[in-house]
Specification:
The protein has 132 residues and is of the alpha+beta class.
């Protein structure tokens, strides 16, 4: 399987919603304008493509100096277990460099995935949850 990766390539929010829905990640995919705003405000997006079809996406916000919040990591279920998610994360790491910590909030179903791809569990995080 040949996967092409693109850095900060413009994405169609409808395609993003399709990948989110097919990946199992919970996002407001019935609100395409909100998906568009989410990606418009992000400064690091790595996408994965198979035959010109979006099959994976990783969205982050970073200062490229100290921290990077990896907000979304989604791979279409038909393409999971082929290392695409791991490669998306690796490309984020490469883009931000060694001085930057990558932080994320995991969905409950993905708690075992992140340690397997190099993340350490943090016991010192806090969150104010969104209302919508």
């Amino acid at each position: 399987m040949m996967i092409e990766y693109r850095h900060n390539f413009p994405l169609n929010p409808t395609d993003i919603a399709r990948v989110f829905n097919s990946s199992g990640i919970t996002r407001p995919t019935d609100d395409i304008p909100r998906i568009a705003r989410m990606f418009a405000a992000s400064n690091l997006v790595i996408s994965a493509w198979a035959n010109e079809v979006l099959v994976g996406v990783c969205r982050a916000l970073t200062d490229y100096s100290y921290c990077c919040y990896l907000s979304d990591l989604a791979v279409d279920k038909a393409f999971q277990s082929h290392g695409i998610g791991k490669e998306l994360i690796r490309r984020v790491q490469t883009a931000v460099g060694d001085e930057v910590s990558i932080i994320l909030l995991s969905a409950p179903g993905a708690m075992s995935y992140y340690p397997a791809v190099g993340f350490a569990k943090a016991e010192n995080a806090f969150v104010i949850r969104r209302l919508k």
